[in-house]
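INSTRUCTION: Work out how this chain folds

Fields: amino acid sequence; protein backbone structure tokens

Chain under study, with its fold:
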Amino acid sequence: MKPLRFLVPVAIATGLIVACKKDNENTTELKIKLTDNPYNATEVNVDIRQVRVNLQDDSSGWVNLETRTGVYNLLDYQNGIDTLIAQSTVPTGRVKEVRFVLGSENSIKIDNKLYPLTIPSGSESGLKIKLNKQLNAHLDSLVIDFDAALSIFQEGTGDYKLKPVLKIK
């Protein structure tokens, strides 16, 4: 009778350990980091409101990541420096697309003068990066290069436009 009393708690504990391990194998702690290439300005400020990833080939697989919202000066993240902007536990699988939703506080500072950066499109639906990356189990990260040099255009009126060029590094 005593061996049976001992085996029941051991069996329950083993079942819990196996179940927890199985859950961990099916999820990935995904981190999204931001970096930039050098650009000739004092500041390039981007207002990041939300980061989302799509894990399906259609629109059914969108996951909102826990985003560190705020205005980021892209020029602070050059020459190998990056910053964590979003992370969440997601199902392990393939990331098909990353989307950044930007706010309205985008600007550029040149010769100590701050200019607004307007976005022709993308502020509502978000800036999209298509990819097909298999996530590693447990932990994975993506470093996004928000290339300011290729993203900013000055119009003949003197206004600055942001047409973001985003790349996976």
User: Anything to note?
Assistant: The first strand starts at residue 27 and ends at 35. Residues 28-168 form one domain.
